[in-house]
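// run 5 | inverse folding | seed 20
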């Protein structure tokens, strides 16, 4: 049984998510703020954290960053704010997905399932050593990419996205295809998750950033 930590300072939100998660067969633990979540994660292991951003004492971004320092637990961030800056910053600190309030509980459950399944798959994918392509050296063990002598660490999601492009180089990929493969779910309405994550990934590819080409009206293509 997968274990989920739900972190939110709103009791109604915790109750809502807990009910749906327990119906899906997840074991649920709750926390009221970021500091409590950090303490719990030091003592217990989880398959996923669902965490609000705006909380008293320690906000979600700070809590996520601190937790990632000692445990690699996937995080889905909840927020009433849906700005591009918030989402980009979330991905930078290691957030795996981002859901804007108000949200559909069924959509959230789909994303929870997808992130948990994907995180379990990611571990088995890191067995191929060093991958050299288009001037990049990708370390699949250390989750780093080296370009022109500069090494950048990749988040698990950035690594999965980059390897999906590498394994499908020369092929035009739609946003829905990328969402389905890398995040594990189909698009729910207007979702720019792919665009934001690619923007972050490009920033780590240096002179190779143009290997990921935008195909207007369709999606993206990886060319070397």
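// decoded
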């Amino acid at each position: 049984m997968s274990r989920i930590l739900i972190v939110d300072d709103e009791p109604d939100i915790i109750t809502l998510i807990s009910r749906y998660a327990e119906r899906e067969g997840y074991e649920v633990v709750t926390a009221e703020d970021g500091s409590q979540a950090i303490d719990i994660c030091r003592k217990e292991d989880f398959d996923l954290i669902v965490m609000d951003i705006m909380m008293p004492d320690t906000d979600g971004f700070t809590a996520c960053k601190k937790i990632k320092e000692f445990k690699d637990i996937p995080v889905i961030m909840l927020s009433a704010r849906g700005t591009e800056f918030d989402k980009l910053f979330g991905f930078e600190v290691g957030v795996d997905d981002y859901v804007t309030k108000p949200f559909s509980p069924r959509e959230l459950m789909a994303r929870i399932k997808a992130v948990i399944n994907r995180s379990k798959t990611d571990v088995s994918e890191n067995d191929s050593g060093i991958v050299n392509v288009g001037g990049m050296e990708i370390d699949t063990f250390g989750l780093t990419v080296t370009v022109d002598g500069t090494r950048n660490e990749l988040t698990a999601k950035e690594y999965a996205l980059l390897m999906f492009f590498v394994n499908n180089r020369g092929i035009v990929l739609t946003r829905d295809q990328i969402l389905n493969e890398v995040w594990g779910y189909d698009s729910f309405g207007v979702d720019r998750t792919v665009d934001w994550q690619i923007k972050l990934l490009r920033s780590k590819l240096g002179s190779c950033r143009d290997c990921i080409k935008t195909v207007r009206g369709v999606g993206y293509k990886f060319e070397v």
